[in-house]
């Protein structure tokens, strides 16, 4: 699959689950639970020992899922993620070496930014879809509003601190394509194999976002 990051974020709206998978044996059931809740794009973070195996398992069992590898902070992780079946890559920041690794692995890439200078750096590399990280609280909403003026055409995926309670504050902003977050599938619910609850959380997020589209 050769996808544009802009298209991936459109498919992900309202939310791209950020998955922290500790047990590979739970990966496919977790992805099925999210899929049942209407989620088509998921990010598996490479911050647990068997995350690459979990990613490969989801790719094998649910090939229809658009799958990202997240928390990529080392250059070699890009090719590893691609080999495991990831369609796109996500980092919490943006450095010249990570950008080169994404290009070498020929992966659509969502680099992370937090400041106007970082947005400019990402823009210089040609990236117009960016992760805003960490998007904690009302400060991040204000910042996204402020970034809209100077950065026309840039679309953000705020992540890190998003919950069901503040979801709409972000989604209602015109420069927010979608949000990312673990609240949809928290490690505690994954450990408990609470698949119905995870499906329900995904449905609730989509319903909340749907109410926004109807009032627009
Ligand atoms: C990420 O890796 O994108 C964030 O750590 C997710 O943050 P959250 O747990 O607040 O959703």
How would you sum up this structure, described in words?
The chain is an alpha/beta fold and about 220 residues long. It has one domain: Alpha-Beta Barrel (TIM Barrel). About 45% of the residues lie in helices and about 15% in strands. The chain has 10 helices and 9 strands. The strands form 2 sheets. A 6-stranded parallel sheet has the order 5-4-3-2-1-9, sandwiched between helices. Strand 7, helix 7 and strand 8 form a beta-alpha-beta unit. Helix 2 packs parallel to helix 10. The longest helix has 21 residues. The protein starts with a helix and ends with a helix. The structure holds 3-phosphoglyceric acid (3PG).
Keywords:
216 residues, alpha/beta, TIM Barrel, six-stranded parallel β-sheet, three-stranded parallel β-sheet, 15% strand, globular, binds 3-phosphoglyceric acid
Quick summary:
The chain is α/β, with parallel strands linked by helices and 216 residues long. It has a single domain, classed as TIM Barrel (Alpha-Beta Barrel).
Strand arrangement, largest sheet?
5-4-3-2-1-9
Count of extended strands: 9
Corresponding CATH superfamily: Aldolase class I
Most strands sheet: 6 strands, parallel
CATH class: Alpha Beta
User: Roughly what fraction of the amino acids lie in strands?
Assistant: 15-25%
Q: Count helical runs.
A: 10
Helix fraction bin: 40-55%
Spatial shape: globular
Residue runs with pLDDT of under 50 for 5 or more positions: none
* Count of the domains: 1
Ligand list: 3-phosphoglyceric acid
Could you tell me the CATH topology label: TIM Barrel
Order of helices and strands: HEHEHEHEHEEHEHEHEHH
